[in-house]
Amino acid sequence: MNIVSLILSKLPTVLLSKWSDYSFPLITEGKKSRLDILADFLQEEAVKISTTSNIHLIGNNFNRVHNTVLVTTDNHDFKCLYCRVSKHKLTECKRFKKSLRKDRWRHVKRHGICYKCLLSRHDRDTCPAAPCDIENCGQSHHRLLHYPITKDIRSPGNINIKEITESATVTNINLSNCKVFLKTVPINIHGPNGVISATALLDDGSTVSLIDYELVKKLGLNGHKQIMRVSGAWNNNSLECVCEIVDLSV
């Protein structure tokens, strides 16, 4: 029995269930060993547990009214959960600031971090932090999670086109001698002309949802024109095109 199997055999059922969800995408990715992945997992679980201490009950012997006090402590002995390089707050992490917004959101959701302050694990509805003030946003999220507001521009043909201030990303990986399994799901798309059955490709890394133009015409969907910039993940080449934004029901 190797050391990973030995450690896993000591974990309770609850942690084993969490370990399965946590480790599968990382093991499949193949960038880290199972032992390193397990070490990161146990460290994150230790941080979650250490943020909450025991609940103390303080009783009043005269009127028998009991007050419940929840004491929380922040343990600063652990490295940043994002960069894992040094001890600092998430709002001070240089790598987090340089990452894509969708990756920031994914990290915050994954670890149950407050959207408003990025400091504690609590409900944003009770967080005293101020809402986002970028471009008078006013939404309940931190400035580092803000998406730019699109700006309206006019085209020569009097078509109302919106300029996207952040590029969409499409990932293309060249591989050989391997099998690629894509996540697909059958769906029914509703439009003015009726219902059409189609197959949807689920892409976890995509920042936009795309639909074939011929399918849009068959459904009788109408929308507004918009400029879209598509770029790859490993080069600076990009393609700009005018697309049509439509609303549909699946």
How do the strands and helices of this protein lay out in sequence?
Elements: H1 3-10, H2 13-29, H3 34-50, E1 52-59, E2 66-72, H4 94-98, H5 101-110, E3 151-154, E4 160-163, E5 168-169, E6 184-191, E7 194-201, H6 213-219, E8 224-231, E9 238-245
Parallel strand pairs: 4-8, 5-8
Antiparallel strand pairs: 1-2, 3-4, 6-7, 8-9
Helix pairs in contact: 2-3
Description:
With 250 residues, the protein is of the alpha/beta class. It has three domains: 78 residues, no CATH class; 61 residues, no CATH class; 95 residues, no CATH class. The protein contains six helices and nine strands, in the order H-H-H-E-E-H-H-E-E-E-E-E-H-E-E. Strands 3, 4, 5, 8 and 9 form a five-stranded mixed beta sheet that branches. It has a two-stranded antiparallel ribbon with strand order 1-2. A two-stranded antiparallel ribbon has the order 6-7. Strand 3 and strand 4 form a beta hairpin. The termini are far apart. 6% of the residues are buried. About 16% of the residues have low confidence.
Number of separate strands: 9
What gap, in angstroms, lies between the N and C termini?
A: 48 Å
Would you tell me the overall average pLDDT? Answer: 74
Give me the Rg, rounded. 24 Å
Major β-sheet annotation: 5 strands, mixed
Protein name: Peptidase aspartic putative domain-containing protein
Organism: Brenthis ino (lesser marbled fritillary)
Task: Throw out a few tags for this protein.
alpha/beta, 5-stranded mixed beta sheet, 23% strand, globular, 9 strands, 250 residues, single chain, 6 helices
